[in-house]
Amino acid sequence: MIVTHRGKSPSIDPTATVAPTAVVCGDVVLGPGARILHGAVLTAEDGRIVVGEDTVVMENALVKARKGHDVRIGDAVVLGPHVHVNGAVVGDECFVATGAALFPGAVLEHGCEVRIRGVVQVNTHLPAGAMVPIGWIAAGNPATMLPPDRHEEVWAIQQQLDFTGTVYGVERETSMRELLRKQSEFYGAHADDEIVG
């Protein structure tokens, strides 16, 4: 499904393909040979998504861009099933495995690997060729990689990365009621979306 959102329609190279059950919404650019598989959702909400040449976005992956958090995915990249990419930059020839999550401001340079269920936190930078092990968390700039059982160390780094400011544009002390009121208003813009293909 190809959808216009906030007056912006996807631009899809004639050699790219979008599965019938995938959604490509808003200011999204798909490069030559890009493949968007069944159930994948690419949604640009006041931001832009650019997918490079011969990149494969596998089943049920979610790629989101918002104002200030564009997504750029390089050439020859694999985003595995159930991957979550939100406002991140992924360099050429990266491999992001099943269930991995990349948060706003994350940067993966050329040839990085994020293995199954790996997490790259907000504003984290992975140098070229870096690898996040299965289930591990990368946090910081430069990235420190830690297993999930070292939560206190992860949290100490993460607190400095401004998750709520980066992701939601609010102070950390903002109440959930206020945060979700703003999110509800923001996402309400989808009521005016138009299916164009």
TrEMBL record:
SUPFAM superfamilies attached to this UniProt entry: Trimeric LpxA-like enzymes
Naturally occurring in which organism (per UniProt): Demequina litoralis
Record-given protein name: Gamma carbonic anhydrase family protein
Gene3D superfamilies attached to this UniProt entry: Hexapeptide repeat proteins
